[in-house]
């Protein structure tokens, strides 16, 4: 992928300043709102069944996240998702903890059935469990498995008819036909809660301005991974707290030149 296109998308995003409607979890709400603001998007968190249809239809993207789900919020997510679908607003879904409890797994599957999802983003265990494949999970964190995440992404994208993003040390993006692996990122991202959830909302912001959702997701992953690399470098010898703050800083400060220089993305040739 030509990295100039990623920097062009980032510039466009900052001009458009898309409204991103998030129905997310209580752990990450503030971090997600601040991360989207730093990036150059406009966050709103709205949960009431009475208003979510109206909010979703005026948004650039709707982000659904089941991290601290309950039946009331799940009902709101489905109302919001259907409204977004009717109005051509992309819906990005983070099935946090799918596989950890049967309630999460069944809710994630219900969301895939009732709402047309543009991008499904999770760790390997979550994605495998949503698709009905075997994979270990511990709470909301990915467990260990020797599975092939490229194969899992391609199979899941075909099976669920959506763009799939599987994150971890390397990230895989696939619609079943076109597949990329992004090598950017930093292990410190696993030491701050909500970095996966914020990433899902960042994908939402890119999807709001680019309707090729494989391209939008890949651009989001490269950008976010480079932001993390720079933040880790600037806070070397400090701890995850400093890294978290610097991540918010670098979401705003990363330059287009750095995106072009440090982007590390590989196209997978499928047979
Ligand atoms: P989990 O709960 O399993 O940590 P998550 O939803 O928090 O999952 P991650 O898979 O941690 O999401 O992905 C969030 C970001 O962290 C992505 O940009 C990913 O590339 C990055 N990341 C995760 N693990 C590593 C790692 N070991 N090295 C580099 N980057 C990583
Ligand atoms: N518990 C329920 S949601 C949540 C926790 C700790 C946040 C998960 O965030 P992420 O981005 O998946 O690490
Ligand atoms: Mg994490
Ligand atoms: Mg997560």
UniProtKB/TrEMBL annotation:
Keywords: ATP-binding, Kinase, Magnesium, Metal-binding, Nucleotide-binding, Thiamine biosynthesis, Transferase. Substrate binds at residues 45, 194. This is Hydroxyethylthiazole kinase. Belongs to the Thz kinase family. Its cofactor is Mg(2+). The keyword Iron does not apply. Gene3D superfamilies: 3.40.1190.20. It is an enzyme of class 2 (transferase). It comes from the Bacteria. ATP binds at residues 121, 167. InterPro entries: Hyethyz_kinase, Ribokinase-like. Catalyzes the phosphorylation of the hydroxyl group of 4-methyl-5-beta-hydroxyethylthiazole (THZ). Its EC number is 2.7.1.50. GO terms for molecular function: hydroxyethylthiazole kinase activity. It catalyses: 5-(2-hydroxyethyl)-4-methylthiazole + ATP = 4-methyl-5-(2-phosphooxyethyl)-thiazole + ADP + H(+). Pathway: Cofactor biosynthesis; thiamine diphosphate biosynthesis; 4-methyl-5-(2-phosphoethyl)-thiazole from 5-(2-hydroxyethyl)-4-methylthiazole: step 1/1.
């Amino acid at each position: 992928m030509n990295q100039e296109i990623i920097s062009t998308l980032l510039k466009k995003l900052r001009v458009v300043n898309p409204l991103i409607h998030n129905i997310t979890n209580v752990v990450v709400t503030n971090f997600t709102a601040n991360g989207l603001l730093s990036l150059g998007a406009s966050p709103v968190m709205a949960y009431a069944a009475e208003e979510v249809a109206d909010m979703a239809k005026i948004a650039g993207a709707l982000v659904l996240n089941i991290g601290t789900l309950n039946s009331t919020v799940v009902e709101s997510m489905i109302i919001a998702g259907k409204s977004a679908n009717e109005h051509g607003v992309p819906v990005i879904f983070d099935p946090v903890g799918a596989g950890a409890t049967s309630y999460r797994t069944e809710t994630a599957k219900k969301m895939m059935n009732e709402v047309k999802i543009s991008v499904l983003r999770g760790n390997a265990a979550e994605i495998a469990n949503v698709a009905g494949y075997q994979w270990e999970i511990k709470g909301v964190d990915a467990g260990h498995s020797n599975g092939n995440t490229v194969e899992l992404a391609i199979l899941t994208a075909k099976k669920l008819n959506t763009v799939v993003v599987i994150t971890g040390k390397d990230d895989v993006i696939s619609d079943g036909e076109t597949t990329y692996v992004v090598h950017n990122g930093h292990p410190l991202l696993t030491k701050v809660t909500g970095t996966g959830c914020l990433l899902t909302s960042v994908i939402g912001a890119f999807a709001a301005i680019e309707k090729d959702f494989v391209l939008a997701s890949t651009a989001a992953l490269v950008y976010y991974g480079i932001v993390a690399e720079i933040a880790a470098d600037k806070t070397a010898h400090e701890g995850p707290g400093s890294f978290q703050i610097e991540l918010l800083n670098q979401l705003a400060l990363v330059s287009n030149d750095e995106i072009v220089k440090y982007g590390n993305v590989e196209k997978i040739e499928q047979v």
